[in-house]
Each structure stands twice: as C-alpha cells, then as structure tokens.
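Observation: inputs received (chain + pyridoxal-5'-phosphate).
Thought: call the complex predictor directly.
Action: predict_structure
Action Input:
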Amino acid sequence: MTTATTTDWQQRHARDLMASYAPPLRLLVRGEGAWVWDEDGTQYLDFLGGIAVNSLGHAHPVVVEAAGRQASLMVHVSNYFATPSQLELAERLKRITGAGEAGRVYFGNSGAEANEAAFKLARRTGRPRILALKNAFHGRTMGALALTGKPALQEPFLPMVPGVEHLDSTVEALAEAMRDDVAALIVEPIKGETGVVPLPEGYLRAARELTERHGALLIVDEIQTGVGRTGRWFDFQHEGIVPDAVTIAKGIAGGVPLSAMVTFGAASDLLQRGDHGSTFGGNPFATAVANAVLEEIERADLMGNADRRGRQIRAAVEGLGSPVVTEVRGRGLLIGIGTVQDAAPAVAAAALEAGLIVNAINPTSIRIAPPLIIGDEEVAAFTDRFRTALAAV
Ligand SMILES: *Cc1c(COP(=O)(O)O)cnc(C)c1O
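Observation:
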C-alpha cells in the first residue's frame, strides 16, 4: 500500500505541474459511491469528497445520466444565448435559498468567482468599506484573496485590492466597525478552511440586525457549507435569517465546475448590464448536472441523511475515547476533529495507510466532508479505520 520509492507519476507531477500544490498523495483512477481506487487497485474510503464537492459520491448514476444526456445535446453556447437547464437551475436556486421571486442568480465556475461577483455587488452600493472576518477563507483570486482573512496567504501578493477590513468573529467587533459607510459584511457560517469552526451562537442573527440597521449587505459564503451538507440546503437557514446574497459552489454540481451568487430583494438590482460576465458561467452542461444533483438531494432526502450520518459520525469519534482527539465540531457532514498539538497530519497520513481519506487542514484539525449518500457501511468502515489511524500516532 505504501509508495516507498518515488514513482513515475510522482516524478511527472513534480516536473510538469505548477509547484503551487503539495505533492499529491496517490494516483487515483476511478471511484464509486464513497470509494476510490488508486492505480495499484488499492481501495480507499473517500471522506473528503473532493473537499465537500462530490455531493453524490463518485460515478453516481444520476450524474452519469445527466452529463451524458446534456453532452449529447450541447455542452456550451455562451451567454449570448439562454438554455433550458440554465433557466431551470436559476429558478431552483431562488427557491432553495429562499430568495424567491425578487431573487436573481449570477453563474460562475468556481467559489472564488462567486465571491468576486459578490465583491463587485458590494462595490456597486457605492460605499467604500467591506467587512470580512479574520481566519475566514473566500478564495485565491485577487478579490477573493483580499476578502480572505489570512495574512500568510495575502503577503506574497501585496498590495491587496483595497477597502477590506478583517474583524474578530464577535458581535462586539462588528458593532464597533459597523457604520453607514459599510457596503457589505461577508461571512462563512462555518469556517471550513480554518478547521470547521462555526460562528459563535447568535452571530449571524446579530450580523443581520446590524447590517440591516446600517443599510449594508450581508453576504453569506456557503461555498463549503451549502447544498445540503449541514442538514439544510444552506447553513444560514438553521439561523432563520435572510441574507442579501449567498455564494454557492463546491457541492452544487457533483464535481462539475460551477458556482453561483444568488441575491435577495433590492440587492438583485445592483449589478446592471455590462457589469460582470463569464464565458463558461452557467453553461448548459454544468447547469444540467447541477439540476440533476439538486433534484436527487431532494428526492433521496440527503439533507436528512447528512444530519443523521453527521450525528452518528460525531458520536462515533467521541466514542473512540482517543486521547489524541480534543473536540468534534461542525454540522451535518462538515465535521472538524480537533487533535492535540501537531497530531493532525500524522492522523491523516495513518488514515490513508489504513485506506481512509481525511484531510489535515491544519496541525490540530482533521476535516471530513464525505458524500451526502453515505450509509451504515461507510460510517462503520470510517469508524474502524479512523480508530486504527488514531492508534498509530
Ligand atoms: C473552497 C472555498 C472557496 C473557494 O472556492 P474555489 O472553487 O476554490 O475558488 C471560497 N469560500 C469558501 C468558504 C470555500 O470553502
């Protein structure tokens, strides 16, 4: 199972791919459900799900069918034309976000692009200040990076796009910063890239109240938390608030690149003709697959499954009683497992050796974001393999 010597594919990756990623862990060749296989035929339980992307797992018949059907009709036409699948998805997103009649949808291809659109939406208020949170992640393009509250990611690329201030994730810090010159506040309801760290209890409701009072937009980045992963379509729906915009990507089309910004109410009129665009954004292929994925999430009650399986997994991890585990965080199937100092990378490496894919997002956090389709078999296999991994460190 171990790759003791540097193999041909590792050398090729190191030689031919931009050095911006760490060396890849395995060469994967196929998947089915929550399982993937490497080139040696070794099987792994995929509890990272392509970083919360593969909502229906690998090779799901619904994705295969929708992709094949749409590819045989047309893959792309440009935004000079409308397509049935794009119109259907826009309507569906307005419904599931709760934006309803007054909502509008902008399509991009990645999370960063959805947040770039949100950045431009905020600029269109004419107000100078944008508030974001320290340690939140909003993407790697220059606008999204300016929103991202991680100095280490920004420093090599200074100067940043101006106008963004990063606050502590407390209601007091927000109340202090909030005035009538604020265009928008952007938040992740659960900070995924920071180790699955939820906002403090009541923060989103207070943020809604403060932004509304000062006429600022509340933008919720649901790129990682959205599309059923936390047990509802969107995490903000647990709080009963209505934002001005929500950004969506990762899980929306089961692995096909697609993102969206959905606006609510008056925010829907901020972007006007010529203000923004994307060649690939919302093409018929990606939107057809997204429609099929969202329909399946609803039909098979995968939000209910995410909630149930999430509880099961959190209880199972706590039940292992390992001294390596310090806490279990998150909602539904976005779970952060806190570890004692510096143990997370060793746990993830031991898990991989035991045939389990999890992610050490930082030295003290393991992230799991499995497909929403997992059942008893996968939960049992995870528990077994994770126990083995914890015992190995
Ligand atoms: C992944 C992520 C992004 C960036 O998405 P990309 O598709 O990598 O550009 C932005 N915000 C959040 C919360 C994310 O998890």
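Thought: report the result.
Final Answer: The pocket of pyridoxal-5'-phosphate is lined by residues 110-112, 115, 137-139, 188, 192-193, 221, 223-224, 249-250 (CB under 6 Å). Residues 64-299 form a domain with the Aspartate Aminotransferase; domain 2 fold (CATH 3.40.640.10).
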